[in-house]
Amino acid sequence: MSSGRTAAKEAKLRAILDAATELLVEKPTASLNDIAEYAGIGIATLHRYIESREQLMLQLGLRAVEVVEETLRRIRPVGEIGDDYIRELIEALIPLGDKINFLANETSLHYSEEMGAAEARVKEPIREAIRSLQSGGAFREDMSAEWILEVLYSLLFVTWQQVHEGRIASKSAAKLVIDTLYHGVAAGADRG
After folding, report:
1. I need a surface site. Which of 25, 60, 99, 141 has the fewest CB within 10 A?
2. Which of 36, 51, 66 is at the close of a domain?
3. Last residue of a domain, one of 17, 35, 51
């Protein structure tokens, strides 16, 4: 198979996965027939790319990780991690909520070794950035980098859910996450 044909097939798979993501965010129980219809293809075409719902969920999870990795490559500074890294990270990840949000609730992915390895791979550069920010004084050193990473992930997932449900505006979501991460929710918290 030529590389052009392979690239075209890969582009078609990504388009199918993107359409499936959009639909599953709105209708988590959508069938493969629903997904094919939403993607504007026949079920036979869908089955050339995806054999089962389980395989679809794994492909969606891996696609989400791929998109996050691409995003991380674009924002990661060349040298020392600066104080703006977390703000840039959050601002870059918030628009990806539709690609990632439903995956938090897709239990079949919690048992996939491939997905676990992919998620660990995507978290590592963020964990390293957090450690750098800790040693630079931007984050507390009496908390583990793992804790801070999981708090950040949790804030992102809650934010995506709230945006999806229309409870907060997507344009204010990044600021809300940043304020909560750096200042908490206590009244009179230091705003420095």
Report:
1. 141
2. 51
3. 51
Q: Are residues 3 and 78 in the same domain?
A: no
Report whether pLDDT(78) > 50.
no
pLDDT confidence band for 148 (50 / 70 / 90)? very high
Q: Which of 73, 77, 71 is nearest to 156 (CA)?
A: 71
Residue 80 has pLDDT above 60, yes or no: no
Q: Which of 10, 15, 49 is nearest to 32 (CA)?
A: 49
Q: What is the 3-state secondary structure (H, E, C) of the chain?
A: CCHHHHHHHHHHHHHHHHHHHHHHHHCCCCCHHHHHHHHCCCHHHHHHHCCCHHHHHHHHHHHHHHHHHHHHHHHCCCCCCCCHHHHHHHHHHHHHHHHHHHHHHCHHHHHCHHHHHHHHHHHHHHHHHHHHHHHCCCCCCCCCHHHHHHHHHHHHHHHHHHHHCCCCCHHHHHHHHHHHHHHCCCCCCCCC
Structure tokens at 48: 């050339």
Q: Are residues 65 and 148 in the same domain?
A: yes
pLDDT single digits (tens) 163-172: 888 999 989 9
Rounding to the nearest 10 degrees, give the CA dihedral for residues 142, 128, 134, 88: -130
Structure tokens at 144: 């583990």
